[in-house]
UniProtKB/TrEMBL annotation:
<dbReference type="GO" id="GO:0008556">
    <property type="term" value="F:P-type potassium transmembrane transporter activity"/>
</dbReference>
<dbReference type="Pfam" id="PF09604">
    <property type="entry name" value="Potass_KdpF"/>
</dbReference>
<keyword id="KW-0472">Membrane</keyword>
<dbReference type="InterPro" id="IPR011726">
    <property type="entry name" value="KdpF"/>
</dbReference>
<feature type="transmembrane region" description="Helical">
    <location>
        <begin position="6"/>
        <end position="24"/>
    </location>
</feature>
<protein>
    <recommendedName>
        <fullName>K(+)-transporting ATPase subunit F</fullName>
    </recommendedName>
</protein>
<keyword id="KW-0812">Transmembrane</keyword>
<keyword id="KW-1133">Transmembrane helix</keyword>
<dbReference type="GO" id="GO:0005886">
    <property type="term" value="C:plasma membrane"/>
</dbReference>
């Protein structure tokens, strides 16, 4: 289940980065 944990961590990190970008650059969305 290590692979699943890694995938979940990557998706969570990507979601956080996306939210930060959306907040910092709202004109792009």
């Amino acid at each position: 289940m290590i692979v699943f944990t890694v995938i979940a961590a990557v998706l969570a990190l990507a979601a956080v980065v996306y939210l930060v970008v959306a907040l910092v650059r709202p004109e792009r969305f």
